[in-house]
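Protein in question quoted for reference:
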Amino acid sequence: MNLNNDISCFSTENILREAEEVFADVHEDFGTIEGILSRFEEWKDSDFDAYKESYAYLCLPKCLAPLIRLHCIAWDPMKVSKFKI
């Protein structure tokens, strides 16, 4: 077993490339933070009572968590971010 070849698959470039492909086959409405938020917003606007009674807003963190984790993989705190806080 050649340990150098096994470790090389964990390079930053390989990890980032694989991370980009995680949601490649997901529809844009569900594969982006903006897409998910817009769907929830549409639901809230079209049927607020059902939205409120279903406690859908409590599911937002769980729905967004995989996408946020994916964004965090490439995050470098030493670089200027394009996102405003």
About this structure: Residues 3-73 form one domain.
